[in-house]
Write a structure and sequence with these properties.
- The structure is a homodimer of 304-residue chains.
- Chain A has 304 residues and is an alpha/beta fold.
- The first copy, chain A, folds into 2 domains: 3-153 and 198-299, Metallo-beta-lactamase, Chain A (4-Layer Sandwich), CATH 3.60.15; 159-192, no CATH class.
- The first copy, chain A, contains 10 helices and 16 strands.
- The first copy, chain A, has a 7-stranded mixed sheet. A 7-stranded mixed sheet of chain A has the order 7-8-9-12-13-14-15.
- Chain A starts with a strand and ends in a 5-residue tail after the last strand.
């Protein structure tokens, strides 16, 4: 099944007429993973026609307004529609304080369990077929980059080989799962008919950050690297001062990490036309694109 | 000069594809008065092409999320663009706590003075030519309705009468200001040539509220009454339970208050087509309209 990435907000700091502030979601099977929740995210969800009733896990990169000011509205809207299933949110240490203090001041009582967890480097949560990892990014305050990576999938079963070896169909399922079978006292190893386990998909979200060595390892061989590109090269000193990346720096990381596709986001509102960012990144790394609000990207499973 | 009213958000509780949550502004000369700041208000300002650098005063009706979750983003955005002139915000007692606690948790230092004041019944602020008044509305928690009312304007000068009475032009200015003049030892009272002082414009914003007697007095003879109309008559019990008004109740108030124009806003998201609300209000009061996001209404000075 396809994984769908939907960009809900792609502007840094301030919204523009075309771009909302940061938020991007990854839809995988019946689950939604949301990375950052800038102001207006719930409205963007409506525009993208994404229901908010399904299982949702939120990952906050850091506690700057343009990454979190949509969170209180989302929490409250879930309340208004009478959500029952839990909502889990990961983020920096002070996220709990931000949410709980506001709930206290505004006297918000939830209809559903809200679970807030501290992010840390390493695996922070996992599902049946995926893990979510975090690393610290480099952005003045406590901040994280996140990665969703699918677990290894079973190798591909080769029915022709199975027929050639005259393996009865009733044994196929066992072999498909990677286990050996015994037929007429002869052991048949799965590897004879099934290719080696296949890599799942890997999607990385940088949040706000200076370029780091850590990110190159973290994003290694990712299918998609969603990386901030707040500035162009002329603004490099400013990028450095405010702990952001230029488009070129993001491209250098993508190249060294050998990712399939680099998607630049979190562009400063000064770039009404972001082609300078595209150009500077493209010089370093060809598989690059600039995110737009409501852009959808499908990440398919490799066939082999 | 015309006063311009711009509706930035007209939906109750949750945003919809067409409607943002509550906010409406009144532009008068070089000042902006903003009533409530729902999530996404700064984006709506951009869409309405309204600069946010001019003098702005904000009035919060009550501390429910759909009326205030755009406030932190607006405060922070002013910071990012380096605002220097003060921002004044009026609202219920806990508004200070809401803003200051968030600034503390998120470590926000402002580039401009932020003045937060408690609303109370009566005149809460005034400018050279207007006053802003508040009354308590009836909505479970501390909450206010607001009124902006221009001070009396000098009466209309009648040049034909002045000529008939052979009053030299040099005396006209004094008479226009309402003062008497003495010509050939004869006192000429201004009222002979100048009509009585004229009423300024009056605009009332209800915020969320049950219909109240207080509002009828407060909105008396207003040019525009912006009143919430969360529900239709079939939902009257629900309106009552949650301290809201039906469209018909809003119309009854408009009629008794003898307003020029009633504008209904804060419609429940269940009304994709709000014509039932229009119909029920129209049966009671003909001069009614339903607000839409980005609707602009000009309120002109009367000519007489």
């Amino acid at each position: 099944m396809s994984i769908e990435i939907v960009f809900l907000g792609t502007s840094a700091g301030l919204p523009t007429e075309e771009r909302n502030v940061s938020s991007v979601i990854v839809r995988r099977e019946s689950e939604i993973f949301m990375f950052d929740v800038g102001e207006g995210t719930q409205k963007q969800l409506i525009k993208a026609n994404i229901g908010i009733k399904q299982k949702l896990t939120i990952f906050i990169s850091h506690l700057h307004g343009d990454h979190i000011f949509g969170l209180l509205g989302l929490i409250q809207s879930y309340n208004l529609i009478g959500r029952k299933i839990p909502l889990e949110i990961f983020g920096p240490k002070d996220l709990k304080k931000f949410i709980y203090e506001n709930m206290k001041i505004l006297n918000i009582n939830l209809t559903y369990p809200l679970i807030i967890r501290n992010s840390k480097q390493g695996i922070i949560t996992e599902g049946k077929n995926y893990t979510i990892k975090a690393i610290e990014s480099d952005h003045r305050i406590e901040s994280y980059s996140y990665c969703i990576e699918e677990k290894l999938r079973p190798g591909k079963f080769n029915p022709e080989k199975a027929n050639k070896l005259e393996i009865p169909i009733k044994f196929w399922k066992t072999l498909k799962s990677g286990f050996p079978v015994t037929i007429n006292k002869k052991n048949i190893d799965a590897s004879l008919i099934v290719s080696p386990p296949r890599k799942g998909r890997k999607i990385v979200y940088s949040g706000d950050t200076k370029p780091t060595e850590r990110m190159m390892t973290f994003a290694k061989n990712a299918d998609i690297l969603i990386h901030e590109a707040t500035y162009d090269e002329k603004m490099r000193a400013r990028a450095d001062k405010y702990f952001h990346s230029t488009a070129r720096q993001a491209a250098e990381i993508a190249k060294k990490a050998n990712v399939q596709l680099l998607v630049l986001t979190h562009m400063s509102p000064r770039y009404k036309d972001p082609s300078i960012l595209y150009k500077e990144a493209y010089e370093i790394f060809k598989n690059v694109m600039i995110a737009e609000d409501l852009l959808k990207i499908n990440v398919n499973l490799s066939k082999d």
